[in-house]
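Students often ask why we bother predicting the structure of a whole assembly rather than each chain alone. The short answer is interfaces. A chain on its own may look different once its partners are present, and contacts between molecules only exist in the joint model. In this exercise we take two input lines together and write out one structure for the complete complex. Read the inputs first and try to guess which parts will touch.
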Amino acid sequence: MADLKGLDVTKNNSLGQSYGYNEQLAIYNHFTTAQGSAYIHLKTNQYKTYNQITTIEGTGYNYGTGKPIKCRWSFYAYNNLLYDKGTTTDSSSGVDAHGMYLSSDGYAVIRAYASSVYFLGLMLNAYTSGAGTHPFGGRVEITAVAQNGTSGNHF
Amino acid sequence: MARIDTNSFDVLAGSSSNGVMKRGFYEYGSPGYSAGRFAHFKTNIIGGYIMSMVEAKGTHYGASQFVHSRWNFYSYSTGVLYRTQFQNIGGAGGLTAGGVYVSSDNYVVLWCELLSNAGDCNFTFNAVHPCPTGSRFGIQITAHTNATSSGSQY
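Now the answer. The structure tokens for the assembled complex follow.
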């Protein structure tokens, strides 16, 4: 059995151009033993001019709610804006994909919510893609995290 | 194209205190048309204060359904389970029910009910151990059997 520290699965298009997709597994693991409900703000390295279409997937186990986690955020940081391309939360998910925003310094932030975060284990995967000349291969990283009662912007 | 030629692999996140995502750590293939449609999977978890999410992904060809189901549970002290749950994801119907129990020798056992015994039901197990207790646990399936009920088989 192989042990890997994160894993990227990249596919260029047949012409070798810069668009395709990149699947990035286990980019970040947020866990906490705090009690009660909370919003979790996860700041990414996706700058407002980064020009990459990104989906971040939450998986894992939220012991506090007793449920597995299945939710997604999709966005496009481009032209100094964050295009919100939607969130989905499975009906049985222990964490909600609550929203997203641009931080005051111009980076995409995704926001999660859980009615209880007691022994929460949230693992993130990322899927990037592009179209036309848009790049896709940049690694998605979580650069800062805050857990609090703020349902709006934190960063 | 790169190929990872291994039966399974672990994807580690962060530092040693962070979690692990296990891919393909066990594969199930239904044994035949007459097999009981309740499958039981004995794990290597015994107590240990381990929080687990286990996932099955595959195809129930005989029932024309896909399989995407998850179990979660907290194996607390020996013989004690908390917060067990089985759920289908995204409209999957290959498995209709599932659960978790402790074997007579105190190991955690997962069970599921296949939609039918029409055969050709195959799925792969993944798991995530991302929580503050039990992170990076190396889960294994040590035995499995098909039965005619969800009652304890081990």
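Check your guess against this: The radius of gyration of chain A is 16 Å.
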